[in-house]
Amino acid sequence: MLIIGIAGGTGSGKTTVVRKIVESLPQGSVAVIPQDSYYNDQSELPLEVRKQTNFDHPDAFEWPLLAHQMEELKAGRAIEQPTYSYITCTRLPETVHVEPQEVIIVEGIMTLYDKKLRDQMDLKIFVDAEPDERLLRVITRDMAERGHPLEMLISKYRNVLKPMHDEFIEPTKQYADIIIPNGGNNDRAIEMMRRYILAALEEQQFRKTLQHEK
Length: 214
Hints:
By secondary structure, the protein is an alpha/beta fold.
């Protein structure tokens, strides 16, 4: 099993990178674990309090649960991945059953933030993009998909996204084995990732064969 962490700021192109990597690998060989599924359960709090959640701060995540479930997958055991609603700002009762696969990808803005989680990864990737480009992507996405007004998005970027990115996300770049500039548009870097992953899987299989023969 190969565990890959893919981090990067909001609008950097992480989702596109993950999708292209998954599409390039054999079907059914990859499980993607979104970090967004591990936001804290806040069901005991009033809705108005929940709506004030800063989703770009490390304290918004239940790190021990995410690290534990990665340990379970690494040990060959299936997990029940939580699901989260941005509408109610809390965890949903439904879970997603995830079986161990040859490749596990953990994807999210702070995937490389927690040391216990980071130490479980075989490959750490940071998807990078210029701040202006990330802002344009966030504005385009949130206006189209969520109907947010432009003024609100600009205010959110200035007061939340940018300061949180500078304080908590950008520093995790130092832990990355590979930095992919230009996000999902960097096809050459994605092809290199594909080759690396396939070679690593072949090496793991070779080691298993040797151990079995012993």
